Amino acid sequence: xxxxxxxxxxxxxxxxxxxxxxxxxxxxxxxxxxxxxxxxxxxxxxxxxxxxxxxxxxxxxxxxxxxxxxxxxxxxxxxxxxxxxxxxxxxxxxxxxxxxxxxxxxxxxxxxxxxxxxxxxxxxxxxxxxxxxxxxxxxxxxxxxxxxxxxxxxxxxxxxxxxxxxxxxxxxxxxxxxxxxxxxxxxxxxxxxxxxxxxxxxxxxxxxxxxxxxxxxxxxxxxxxxxxxxxxxxxxxxxxxxxxxxxxxxxxxxxxxxxxxxxxxxxxxxxxxxxxxxxxxxxxxxxxxxxxxxxxxxxxxxxxxxxxxxxxxxxx
Length: 316
Fold this sequence. Notes:
The protein is of the alpha/beta class. 39% of the residues lie in helices and 21% in strands. The chain has ten helices and 13 strands. Strands 5-4-1-8-9-10 form a six-stranded parallel β-sheet, sandwiched between helices. The radius of gyration is 19 Å and the shape is globular.
């Protein structure tokens, strides 16, 4: 199997708690917090491990929050390659309100990376074995420009790495303009912004995704469609997978679970159809949980079996 590495430039230590109700000014009595690792690439690596694979998570850590983050990943069996930084790793908070079922996500700014610290992370990427998959996921730290991100992706591609980028806005657009990505997962609104036109009909989404593939931006484009699942295209195929009916508790972690599952299938040499079926299953599995929990192997396999039984293999 192809080796999997992930890179998270802006990791976090996430805490989740619940309160009976929310209101201004008064003291809101919370339950004891549950701490979990956070950050796009870190969660992708965790999802891969949860689903029975192996992944190596590369990320910067700073201060006690960074050490706590690494300890949690060690306990989960995720192999880590860290870089100690001057700034402390951020801490985010997720609050579930019992009486309304609402979720509040308080996201702090990421820790800054100095030029020297960023260069050291690039050096770690350059030591990844050629032919491996590198998933670059999550937001950019303050003062880290898209030019730096593009430099990093170029170095990775020069080393023969298969790059998956799961980001948004200018960062995603810049990486697609660079081209040659193994896989991207924009949602419909992000795809519309990338293409520069409204995507009203289902055919519009398919055509826009195929346009990215044809111009060499990415070999595989998987468009997240929310309740409608995902539409995936490569040079030869187009397939849409509708998720199974489940009672959603939280959408936190669904996207990272989906990317982790698709990365694992790509590492196994699966075709586009199986990649997206497993991805939708894992994304749906994550929604069964409260707070920041990701997919489980048991739930993902059950939903994957359901999808396989209720979807036909594409003819083209």
